[in-house]
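On clarity, I found the account of how folds are encoded harder to follow than it need be. Since the whole study asks how a given chain folds, the encoding of that fold should be made plain. For illustration, here is how one protein appears when written out as sequence plus structure tokens:

:::
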Amino acid sequence: MTDPKTHSLIEDAQGLAFGATMAAFGILVLTHLGLVTGQTAGLAVLISYATGWGFGPVFFAINIPFYLLGWWRMGWAFTVKTFVAVAALSGLTMVMPGWVSFATLNPVFGAVLFGFLSGAALLALFRHGASLGGIGIVALMLQDRLGWRAGWVQLGFDALLFAAALALRDLPTVALSFLGALVVNLVIAINHRRDRYIAT
């Protein structure tokens, strides 16, 4: 008999595929508009803008040190799923620009759209026992250990990252970017509640 509190392999695969694809589409929207974001993805975006290196390889490389932390505190299953999600996102961001283009994309709407896409992506990954690595692993650890909501932890990290972003982007662009990051973190803070929803 299947335990109703656990996901099957097929369900996990679908959740990881959905999360990675929606996150990659969110990054496509973000970088099309020249915006930045928070968390590990935001750091990768800033490095990409500053160096001209592709987001995908930078994002994949940045996450490598966090896998040991994830393995130690969250277990092997979480770490393997996170590795798969990060690798899928990295690969998709390299090929997706050839699949999707925008003739018109309002920057305000684009920032909010990025936030909704990324928030939904992270929720799917969290509920299937994965994350997109980096600060997401730390945020989930703090939520599980101390009860701090993952969204609020990530928002604090984002504030520091956006301060650094002012060195590469003008204030209106950073303000729009912060709107997108705020939407991401509000989606997570409101919806990723272990006292209301059971995540396995």
In short: The CA atoms of residues 76 and 134 lie 16 Å apart. The chain has a mean pLDDT of 86. The chain has eight helices and no strands.
